[in-house]
TrEMBL record:
<feature type="binding site">
    <location>
        <position position="25"/>
    </location>
    <ligand>
        <name>[4Fe-4S] cluster 1</name>
    </ligand>
</feature>
<protein>
    <recommendedName>
        <fullName>GTP 3',8-cyclase</fullName>
        <ecNumber>4.1.99.22</ecNumber>
    </recommendedName>
</protein>
<dbReference type="InterPro" id="IPR000385">
    <property type="entry name" value="MoaA_NifB_PqqE_Fe-S-bd_CS"/>
</dbReference>
<feature type="binding site">
    <location>
        <position position="127"/>
    </location>
    <ligand>
        <name>S-adenosyl-L-methionine</name>
    </ligand>
</feature>
<dbReference type="InterPro" id="IPR007197">
    <property type="entry name" value="rSAM"/>
</dbReference>
<dbReference type="InterPro" id="IPR010505">
    <property type="entry name" value="MoaA_twitch"/>
</dbReference>
<comment type="pathway">
    <text>Cofactor biosynthesis; molybdopterin biosynthesis.</text>
</comment>
<comment type="function">
    <text>Catalyzes the cyclization of GTP to (8S)-3',8-cyclo-7,8-dihydroguanosine 5'-triphosphate.</text>
</comment>
<feature type="compositionally biased region" description="Basic and acidic residues">
    <location>
        <begin position="318"/>
        <end position="329"/>
    </location>
</feature>
<feature type="binding site">
    <location>
        <position position="197"/>
    </location>
    <ligand>
        <name>S-adenosyl-L-methionine</name>
    </ligand>
</feature>
<feature type="binding site">
    <location>
        <position position="18"/>
    </location>
    <ligand>
        <name>GTP</name>
    </ligand>
</feature>
<keyword id="KW-0342">GTP-binding</keyword>
<feature type="binding site">
    <location>
        <position position="32"/>
    </location>
    <ligand>
        <name>[4Fe-4S] cluster 1</name>
    </ligand>
</feature>
<feature type="domain" description="Radical SAM core">
    <location>
        <begin position="9"/>
        <end position="251"/>
    </location>
</feature>
<feature type="region of interest" description="Disordered">
    <location>
        <begin position="318"/>
        <end position="337"/>
    </location>
</feature>
<feature type="binding site">
    <location>
        <position position="31"/>
    </location>
    <ligand>
        <name>S-adenosyl-L-methionine</name>
    </ligand>
</feature>
<feature type="binding site">
    <location>
        <position position="164"/>
    </location>
    <ligand>
        <name>GTP</name>
    </ligand>
</feature>
Length: 337
């Protein structure tokens, strides 16, 4: 029987599912998991509380039957989850999945990229905020050198994975080196500059620390060597990055979550590592899917639950944010970035 298209209260379909596979990370980025909060005594989720691969696969299959076409693994740092390529293989086999991607800091890709590719992963988005060792070391909280991420990017490309690079821009922190970063990486992969967001409750966000995308683009084109940019037509409805191309065909993406929010087209659901369903990155609470999963719920019961949550969805936080942030948001490392 053909199911009518599931849409939320604002008419938005469900197309993307982000799956967090762990709340742990091997970096302590100051804007995401600052070491002062996520220190040696921080209580991460015990392994038995994490969704198993069987549970994730089952949920993903149900989400696909409700309209999801793109799956993205995230975290925390997804590559820290043991046997990740087994999960990738399970998800890659699901009928109806058009894209299977992962967001990662890239550090473990030299070891894992070939297996992930062989298991069916198509693309990685690698986060890299600066090529300046001093700046990057300070931002990642552990003094890790950018070369380690560059090695991960190289390994992903060698393995045949599609690669994009994510750079979060914070005024007064890494905004001086954006052009250098883009010039150094543009031939390898499209770079997407992301406006610093008020995710979580610990990153000291305020409007002054946001560099608007329009300013980022102006800085990239700041001298006569750098070409004028053409803006590209979105590939699909709901594409979050506004893409631009220089005269030599290099692409740059701008994700303006603060100055030009895209809630109106947001077709994304997120499952946390413990199986809570969130319909907005800035949500305060989610819907527990693990209890029904472990309590013997049938597929039909789970589908009713999932479609009920999506059908009632009204979230549009970024459009409502204004100058002030709300203080009760779930952490990004928990919900999955
Ligand atoms: N550990 C992986 C990584 O580093 O890509 C995946 C999880 S991380 C939370 C996902 C993405 O969210 C990264 O690109 C990170 O830079 C971005 N991010 C985290 N906090 C952010 C913030 N406050 N504003 C904008 N982007 C943020």
């Amino acid at each position: 029987m053909l199911r009518p298209m599931l849409v939320d209260q604002l008419g938005r379909p469900l197309r993307d599912l982000r799956i967090s596979v762990t709340d742990r990370c091997n970096l302590r980025c100051t804007y995401c998991m600052p070491a002062s909060v996520f220190g040696p005594d921080y209580a991460f989720v015990p392994r038995s509380d994490l969704l198993t691969f069987e549970e994730i696969e089952r949920l993903a299959r149900l989400f696909v039957s409700l309209g999801v076409r793109k799956l993205r693994l995230t975290g925390g740092e997804p590559t820290l989850r043991r046997d990740l390529s087994d999960l990738v293989a399970r998800l890659a086999r699901l009928e109806g999945v058009q894209d299977l991607a992962m967001t990662t800091n890239g550090l473990l890709l030299p070891r894992l990229a070939p297996d992930l590719k062989a298991a069916g992963l198509r693309r990685v988005t690698v986060s890299l905020d600066s090529l300046d060792p001093q700046v990057f070391g300070q931002m990642n909280g552990l003094g890790i050198h950018p070369q380690q991420v560059l090695d991960g990017i190289e390994a992903a490309l060698q393995a045949g994975l599609g690669v994009k690079i994510n750079t979060v821009v914070q005024r007064g922190v890494n905004d001086q080196g954006l052009r250098e970063l883009w010039l150094a990486l543009r031939a390898q992969a499209p770079v997407r500059f992301i406006e610093f967001m008020d995710v979580g409750n610990h990153n000291g966000w305020n409007m002054d620390s946001v560099v608007p995308s329009s300013e980022v683009l102006a800085r990239l084109g700041a001298d006569s060597e750098t070409p004028v940019f053409d803006s590209l037509v979105p590939d699909y409805r709901g594409e979050v990055a506004a893409r631009h191309r220089d005269a030599q065909g290099h692409e740059v993406g701008l994700i303006s979550s603060v100055t030009a929010p895209f809630c109106g087209d947001c077709s994304r659901a997120r499952i946390s590592a413990v199986g809570a369903l969130y319909t907005c990155l800035f949500a305060s609470s989610g819907t527990d899917l693990r209890a029904p999963l472990r309590g013997g719920a049938s597929d039909a019961e789970l589908l009713t639950l999932l479609s009920g949550v999506w059908g009632r969805r009204t979230d549009r936080y970024s459009e409502e944010r204004g100058e002030q942030t709300r203080q009760t948001k779930v952490e990004m490392s928990y919900i999955g970035g």
